[in-house]
Amino acid sequence: MDLISEVLISYDMPHTYITIYNHNINVYELAHKIKEWAFDNWYSIDVYPTQTNEGKMYGVSISKLWKWGEHPNWYKSTYRKTEYEAVFEAGKWILEILNNNKQE
Question: Phi first, then psi: what are they for 26, rounded to 5°?
Fold first, then answer.
């Protein structure tokens, strides 16, 4: 399953919203839903603006949330031109991890 379908289904969105090719979607609302979906799956997506040699970029850090008594795990950091692109990239990475864990 792709990231958008996974996120929309997990929030009981009607099936018509999953067929996004025929509809306009708010990318900022979708990015927010991806962050909520990640949190529900014990991951944190933190986005921050930064200056790079290529100009203003958005950094994203992905970490695994921890339960009491466990140590938090930091997983990945990357940069994208927009905040929502950074969140989408993080969400795709988390979905890949979750799918790999299901197969084990």
Answer: -90, 110
SS3 103: helix
Contact 47, 58 (CB under 8 A): yes
CATH number, position 29? 3.30.160
Decide: helix, strand or coil at residue 52: strand
Would you give per-residue pLDDT tens digits along the chain (104 residues)?
A: 566 666 655 555 444 444 455 556 778 888 899 999 999 998 999 999 999 888 899 989 888 877 666 655 666 778 888 888 899 989 988 888 888 877 76
Which pTM was predicted?
0.72
The whole domain housing 90 covers 3-103
Q: What is the 3-state secondary structure (H, E, C) of 4-48?
A: HHHHHHHCCCCHHHHCHHHCCCCHHHHHHHHHHHHHHCCEEEEEE
